[in-house]
Amino acid sequence: MTAEPIGAPDSRALVERVFREERGRLLAALARRFGDLDLAEEVTSDAIEVALARWPVEGVPPKPGAWLMTTARRKAVDRLRRDKTYAARLAVLQVDADRADHAPPADADGELPDERLQLFFTCAHPALPAEDRTALTLRCLAGLATPEVARAFLVPTPTMAKRIVRAKKKIREARIPFRVPGADELPERLPVVLQVVYSIFTEGYAASTGPDLQRLDLADEAIRLARILHRLLPAEREVTGLLALMLLNHARRDARTGPDGELLLLDEQDRGRWDRLMIEEGRGLVIPAVSGGPPGPYGVQAAIAALHDEAADVATTDWPQIVALYDVLLAITPSPVIAVNRAAAIAMRDGAEAGLALLDELADEPLLRAYHPYLVARADLLHRLGRLPDAVAAYRKALESAGSDPERRHLERRLASLNA
Fold first, then answer.
1. Where is the RNA polymerase sigma factor 70 region 4 type domain (predicted)?
2. Alpha-carbon gap, residue 248 to 174, rounded angstroms
3. What is the helix, strand, coil percentage profile of the chain, to 5?
4. Which residues lie below 8 Å from residue 51, measured CB to CB, with a gap of 6+?
5. Are 8 and 56 in contact (CB under 8 A)?
6. Which SS3 state, helix, strand or coil, does residue 413 take?
């Protein structure tokens, strides 16, 4: 197979696609090899720039990921040679500069090895503060921009940028190894890795910004990573629960938007478009996730998602059981966000007034002041109760916190109908 030159616009689009697909694997391999995330990020970007300059003329190589790895590795070796501060590290790492030009960076099939799992556990090292672990992994392995990571955790972008820089510095200075931990370390490290994978999925399930409600590439990537974890750790019930939860939610992806990309709520969705094979796979994982001991938060959430997916419609959903599961979840992991979801379920079981009372009790929670689902839930319940002036004010406040364009347009339509 030979490379053929292509037009510059097409080449840039192809490079960007390859970059999205290969960036995490490339970064993980370079970070493990050189022990420096900053260096790995820099030479990854350098390799992309070289590709943008050369591929339109020389053609896209048959194995673009391996090509990028070779180019990035050479860039790293050159940088280490030039930078005196890295001279000692170059010797310690025993990077053979001559072999770097000839040794294949890929496996026997010419594919770039997947070492992302090692980098996930490195970023989840207990030496890092919990908030820094997730932020760093989202930035480095999921490829989320710093503002997207900041929005996911409801903090200002400069604050998140400092966390990411601090985490990378800690890994470098403490010489935290890039490896999968041993069995004795796993219980401490695994929950953070699961949180990271789920954070990637939630950004894909409901994009924080942009023209689309969903970023299916991120959601698919999170599920793929969860499958890897499940294959490696089949006895870990929370790994099973997380995979089940994501599958049961992602099964609704095709029905969550209309023909023009508009947001469709649960009661508006055509359940015939839900992915039944994915639902069955997820349901099959729920039982082992919640059996054999006290359930974990992912297992409980997966059980809630299964009840939604099993129901013929919103009216026949088993809301009492969902409320009971939220009671369990709130006891396991007390959180105002979980309390919001529980209040919404109680509104479906006991009526809008009961749900609104619970939401109003949460009004002073700092985390919820700009939390979009909370603001929308409150506006919707005011609307259901016929308190139209209050609903208009609540929808306007929710509109200020809307991230994606479909969310914004959905609220604008609600406001327009109320004003009419």
1. 123-171
2. 40
3. 70, 0, 30
4. 15, 18, 64, 67, 68, 71
5. yes
6. helix
Q: Give the tokens for residue 376.
A: 């929308």
Those residues whose C-beta lies under 8 Å from the C-beta of residue 364, and which sit 6 or more positions away, are none
Which phi and psi angles does 210 have, rounded to 5°? Answer: 105, 180
Count Cα neighbours of 384 within 13 Å in the Cβ-side half-sphere: 15
Length of the chain: 420
Residue 45's SS3 state is: helix
Q: What are the boundaries of each domain within the chain?
A: 8-100
Is the alpha carbon torsion for 298, 304, 307, 312 positive or negative?
negative
Q: Tens digits of per-residue pLDDT, 125-181?
A: 888 887 788 788 778 877 777 888 887 666 889 999 999 999 988 988 888 888 888
Closest CA to 337 of 357, 366, 308: 366
Is residue 151 within 8 A of residue 209, CB to CB? The reply is yes
Extended beta strands in 188-321, E state? none
Q: Which of 54, 44, 41, 42 minimizes the C-alpha distance to 14?
A: 54
CA 357, 358, 359, 364 dihedral sign is positive
3-class SS of residue 263: strand
Half-sphere exposure of 68 (CA within 13 A, CB side): 34
Do residues 365 and 394 touch, judged by C-beta distance below 8 A?
Answer: no
Q: Give me the amino acid identity at 211.
A: P
Residue 201, helix vs strand vs coil: helix
Residue 154, Ramachandran bin (φ over 0: left; ψ between -120 and 50: alpha; else beta): left
- pLDDT tens profile 376-389: 999 999 999 999 99
Single out the residue of 196, 37, 224 nearest to residue 121, CA to CA.
196
CB–CB of 170/128 below 8 Å?
yes
